[in-house]
Amino acid sequence: MEQQKQQKPKVMVLGTFHMRYTPDIYREEFGDLLSERRQKEIREVVDKIKKFNPTKLAFEVVKEEEEELNQAYRQYLNNDLELKIDETHQYGFRIASELGHKKVYAVDWMKSVGNRGMGQVFEWAKNEQPDLYKYIDENYRSRSDFDLATKSIVDLMKEKNEESSIKKGHEMYMAVARIGTVEDYVGIDWLRWWYQRNLIIYSNLAKITSSPEDRTLLIIGAAHVHLVSQFLKESGMFDVEPAIAYL
């Protein structure tokens, strides 16, 4: 008799834009995320993702702030918190509460390891490798694909989680790796931090996703989706379900 395949925990990595930056930068084109129209669109995303039926929710919040995160979540459960314009609140708290979760999880890491920041890397490239800087700026950093005025939040979330979009987002980091000289790996100096951060996110996810019955939903900036999903898949421990299948 063929041995029954062992069930693995499931993880979904939902890539998103950072809502907290939207009001100041894009208000004229996007409108207020608390408006009736945008709240209906957020509600649609919530209803779609709930069909994954997650048993745990994890957020792009540093691990050290998990208690504060859960304090805010408990306030929300007690109808004592007005949701902020933030994907953790707008998506996460709603999904977790409507599925009866008592706790949510912080899995991020943001400590310095003495490396250059991304801004410093691009400033160096602008001065020392202007052709490469222009290539990265025009192909990856442009806001042309972030068309908020004519798209719903649902459409935008679909785009963020399409395989082609995830692949293109990661391509930028491979271009960043080319910034520098044969003796000074400027771009890689930042990238080592970026890879370390995503590995720690993966490690924290693995710690909370241990039972075969676990279905963990991670809500995180879309730039993280490629690496975190890659680490989860290559561990051999998890089944990774693409968010686009639910959107």
Describe the structure.
It is a single chain. It contains 10 helices and 5 strands, in the order E-H-H-E-H-H-E-H-H-H-H-H-E-H-E. The protein has a 5-stranded parallel β-sheet, with helices on both faces. The chain is globular. It is of the alpha/beta class. The mean pLDDT is 92.
Biggest sheet statistics:
5 strands, parallel
Output the structural class: alpha/beta
Instruction: Give the topology string: H per helix, E per strand.
Output: EHHEHHEHHHHHEHE
What spatial form do the alpha-carbon principal axes imply? globular
Rg calc = 19 Å
Side-by-side strand order of the widest sheet: 3-2-4-1-5
In whole angstroms, the N-to-C terminal distance is 39 Å
* Tally of helical segments: 10
**Percentage of residues in helical conformation:** 40-55%
Name the descriptors.
247 residues; alpha/beta; 5 strands
